[in-house]
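Sequence design from tokenized structure. All designs in this work follow the same two-part layout: the structure record, then the generated sequence. An example of the structure record is given first.
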């Protein structure tokens, strides 16, 4: 019986709740990490996609006008920088180059030695002329001594002939000998002068082996090397140089432009101009018209105009491309201050039939302004109303840009690339 009771106890269901196991904290940390990651992704997504970055634009400031800058351009033309004084320097004689003393970019003064030729032949010719001069002088001296003796003999025989102590034939012979020596002395003296002149010519020949700069300037080309043959005339072959180097007087630089026949009437001598080098588009160089060449090119229907630049700068070099704006006559200093500002032409566009520009405010938003234009100033525009000096205007506004849009300035590094 006891065994059965024990078995029944074992089969009885225990109604007591089982002890709770300790809860793990790992799921909580995972949940917090996921929440933080989602928040970070949300912030990054807003920064990258949700924030209004604005339209990338370039800007430029407007500039107040002065009396001198109020002159409007009446004509634009293109041309090149040229030098009025430029020379390819050569030797006066044909010879072999011994030494070249110039390099490209070197500044030379008037009379400075640029190169020397082999002087062997010239020195030999000079030595021969010097010897001939010495011989002529020696002969002249000998005849001078003989003439003195002959004149003394004639004087002595003259007294004897008066006293009839010598024959008249002997006296006449002495006189003839004296006259002959006189003629020979004159000839010898002339030969001495010829020999002296020949020596001077030989000295010039030696000097011609030295090539000097005809004027002060800058060397822009070196054409010969030691050992080459140079000649002032073209030899027709490929082994003879015709020059040592080319120098340019940088103070003689000016601009030559070709103006169409239909517009040449707008150009007048002494007319002010504004030149812009293709290499430096932001540099405006003032100047004036020197002269209008009185000849036309029938193939291009143009007339050449010479223009002087008022600025001397090492950045201006021959054969540079340049754009010239011919301006109206400058107003006198007493003229009324012009109204308006000077704005870049690229900032002005047409919207709904009106000329407008977009001004960037302090919050990087644009304001569309209606403009009143008073004329061109080269690549810029004279704006008489709608803009103030110092305001930043958008260059080349996109077609979709409108009033109130947010913009972002293009960084300089991006522009440079």
């Amino acid at each position: 019986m006891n065994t059965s009771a024990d078995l029944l106890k074992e089969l009885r269901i225990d109604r007591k709740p089982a002890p709770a196991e300790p809860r793990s904290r790992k799921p909580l940390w995972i949940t917090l990490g996921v929440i933080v990651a989602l928040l970070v992704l949300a912030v990054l997504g807003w920064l990258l996609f949700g924030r209004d970055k604005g339209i990338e634009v370039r800007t430029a400031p407007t500039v107040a006008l002065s009396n001198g800058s109020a002159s409007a351009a009446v004509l634009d033309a293109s041309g090149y920088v040229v030098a009025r004084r430029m020379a390819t320097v050569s030797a006066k004689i044909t010879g072999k180059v011994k030494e070249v003393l110039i390099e490209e970019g070197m500044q030379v003064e008037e009379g400075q030695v640029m190169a020397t030729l082999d002087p062997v032949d010239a020195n030999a010719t000079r030595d021969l002329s010097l010897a001939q001069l010495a011989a002529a002088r020696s002969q002249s001296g000998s005849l001078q001594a003989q003439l003195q003796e002959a004149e003394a003999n004639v004087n002595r025989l003259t007294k004897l002939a008066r006293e009839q102590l010598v024959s008249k034939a002997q006296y006449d012979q002495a006189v003839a000998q004296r006259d002959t020596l006189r003629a020979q002395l004159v000839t010898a003296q002339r030969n001495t002068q010829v020999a002296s002149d020949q020596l001077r010519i030989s000295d010039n020949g030696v000097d011609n082996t030295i090539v000097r700069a005809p004027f002060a300037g800058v060397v822009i080309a070196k054409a010969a090397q030691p050992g080459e043959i140079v000649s002032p005339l073209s030899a027709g072959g490929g082994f003879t140089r015709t020059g040592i180097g080319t120098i340019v007087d940088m103070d003689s630089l000016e601009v030559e432009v070709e103006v169409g026949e239909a517009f040449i009437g707008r150009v007048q001598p002494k007319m002010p101009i504004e030149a812009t080098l293709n290499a430096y588009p932001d540099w405006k160089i003032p100047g004036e018209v020197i002269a209008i060449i009185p000849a036309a090119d029938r193939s291009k229907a143009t007339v050449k105009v010479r223009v002087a630049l008022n600025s001397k700068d090492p950045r201006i070099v021959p054969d540079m491309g340049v754009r010239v704006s011919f301006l109206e006559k400058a107003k006198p200093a007493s003229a009324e201050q012009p109204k308006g500002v000077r704005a870049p032409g690229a900032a002005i566009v047409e919207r709904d039939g009106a000329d407008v520009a977009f001004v960037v405010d302090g919050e990087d938003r644009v304001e569309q302004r209606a403009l009143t234009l008073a004329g061109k100033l080269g690549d810029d525009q004279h704006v008489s109303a709608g803009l103030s000096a110092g305001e930043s205007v958008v260059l080349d506004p996109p077609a979709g840009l409108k009033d109130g849009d947010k913009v972002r300035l293009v960084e300089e590094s991006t522009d440079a690339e």
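The helical segments are 2-11, 26-50, 120-162, 168-207, 412-416. We note this feature because it recurs in several other targets discussed in the main text.
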